[in-house]
Amino acid sequence: MSSYEEHSIRKNLFSIGKLGYAKGDRPNVDCILCGVRDKNEIVPNLTIAETELSIVSVNLFPYNPGHIIIFPKRHIIHYLELTEDEALDIHKLTQKAMRILEKQWRVQGFNIGFNLGKNSGGSIPHIHEHIVPRFPNEAGFLDVISNTRIVIYEPYQMWDDLKKLWSEEVTD
User: Fold this and answer.
1) What is the pLDDT of residues 6-28, one digit of tens each?
2) Which of 21, 23, 76, 157 has CA atoms 20 to 30 A from the CA of 121?
3) Catalytic residues (predicted)?
4) Was 7 annotated as part of a binding site?
């Protein structure tokens, strides 16, 4: 491996819990997100809010503070299976999430999208949209020196904070 290749591979500092998850040690359910929907007691549930069609949840292993996912309650694998009502619902929830994050945390950018299929990095066979807040100067010395990222916001505290903010947000 060349020196460039060695330094271009991102390293991650996992919490002990994430390391097992990343290696496949996950709750024994057919679908993690359906487990969240069904409030299965063996599935960690960080639901912030839900509508008739969709669920908003903190990502259990966030890339940045405020990293949330939005997914349809109906088990869907392919994006093209979304109904117009489901797509509109996810869109409206995305806008609300962005307003909350911009207002409360001064977020100045977002990465928003779906990882569809294993070749795109998708690890859950149930479509879900990621909303990843981006902050000015978020690259720290570990990002620069060792290409490693540390997320300093504990997911369960993020969940508690976002649930409160979500219920307080007034929609037009």
Assistant:
1) 445 555 444 445 555 555 667 88
2) 157
3) 128 (tele-amp-histidine intermediate)
4) no
Domain residue ranges in the chain? 3-168
Percentage with pLDDT > 90 across the chain: 45
Residue 12, marked binder: no
Query: Rounded to 5 degrees, what angle do the CA atoms 172, 128, 95 make?
Result: 15
84-105 and 155-168 helices cross at what angle (nearest 10)? 100
Fold entry, domain 3-168:
HIT family, subunit A (3.30.428)
Question: Can you tell me the distance from the alpha carbon of 34 to that of 36, in angstroms, rounded to the nearest whole number?
Answer: 5
Instruction: Tell me the pLDDT band of 3, cut-offs 50, 70 and 90.
Output: very low
Task: Give catalytic residues, as residue numbers.
Answer: 128
Q: For the chain, what percentages of helix, strand and coil (3-state, to nearest 5) are there?
A: 40, 15, 45
Residue 103 burial class via C-beta count within 10 angstroms: exposed 0-12, middle 13-18, buried 19 and up: exposed
Dist CA 61 CA 22 (whole Å): 10
| Cα gap 16→11, rounded to integer Å | 15
| End-to-end CA separation in angstroms for the chain | 55
